[in-house]
Amino acid sequence: MPRNLADDIAAECFDHGSCGVHTEDSGAQVRLNVYFEAPAGELQTLNAALIKGLSAAGLWPDGARVLRGDVELERDWNEAWKEFYRPVWATESIVVHPPWLPVTVAAGQMAIAIDPAMAFGTGGHESTQLALQAIEYSDCCGRRCLDIGTGSGVLSIALVRLGAQHVTAVDIDPVVVDNAKTNFRANLGAETARTRLFTGGIDCVHGEWFDVIVANIESHLLRPLLPAIAAALRPDGVALFSGLLESEGERFTEWLADAGLSVAKTWSKNNWFSCSSRAHS
Ligand code: SAM
After folding, report:
1. Among 27, 88, 106, 233, which one is most buried in terms of CB atoms within 10 A?
2. Where a domain ends, among 74, 97, 116?
3. What is the domain count for the chain?
């Protein structure tokens, strides 16, 4: 199925009682594996109900078909989910991997171990990859950085490893913050001292200024934060935004302008883009 529909279809599958969904890349198309806990004899009924539900939601694209319907006996989901995680080259030089699959990297490359847990940011999503690209491009060395919506902490870890003087990470989700703490310790060791982690939003750092601010957050959640982000940015600082769909590009540029920021550079992949921005001169 087309990649841009996969997230919506996965969400719809969970609404129909799926206990697990796994996406496999195949160029512009993706293959979706959907799991249900049910007696073996119910496979056909489940298939039919799911296709009916997806069609009603306008999420059964022309030409979509069930490739295989198999029955697996008793899957231990506490262990089974692990097989879905593989090391991902999020950029040309940054690989994100689960702790149980270590990766050896060459000089100039970076491996970040992320315990997938409940937080977003395992490296597989375009928005994380594009945020990492923007971070690599921007000069973060010796800078004071802020990571809004840190999730797994993956962007903060990259910032510290790239030489940021200090990184403050915030996220409104307390579960996520615990996961970020674990990932900071595992990846940064003693350098965790160069980080701060808060449960909350940008108001946690009210009155502080930063050289680099990164936020990988959906645009409708990001919009109300833009004035505070602009206010927290040093005059020569750079704000990096990701989690943006290309179809939202024009509108997002207008929102940035309203906050006194203008786009300096963009990166894109599939339907997603990230950008760096600076205060109007
Ligand atoms: N930074 C990680 C990455 O790049 O993969 C995770 C990004 S995830 C798409 C967005 C995160 O932003 C979520 O963990 C969510 O809880 C958090 N979030 C949403 N709104 C927020 C807000 N107003 N302030 C702080 N965090 C927020």
Report:
1. 233
2. 74
3. 2
- Are residues 133 and 55 part of one domain? no
CATH number at residue 172: 3.40.50.150
Cβ–ligand 1 contact at 116 (below 6 Å): no
Q: What is the DSSP string of 51-82?
A: HHHHHHTT-S-TT---------S---HHHHGG
Instruction: Name the CA dihedral angle for 118, 121, 125, 127, rounded to a multiple of 10 degrees.
Output: 130
One domain for residues 133 and 268: yes
Instruction: Give the Cα separation of 276 and 265 in Å (integer).
Output: 5
Measured at the CA of 168, the angle between CA 116 and CA 223, to 5 degrees, comes to 85
pLDDT digits (tens, 9 = 90+) for 216-226: 999 999 999 99
Span from the CA of 203 to the centroid of ligand 1 (angstroms): 14
- Give the span between the Cα atoms of 211 and 109, in whole angstroms: 24
Q: Are 95 and 240 in contact (CB under 8 A)?
A: no
Domain-embedded: residue 159:
yes
Tell how far the Cα of 26 is from the centroid of ligand 1, in angstroms: 27
Above 60 in pLDDT, residue 156? yes
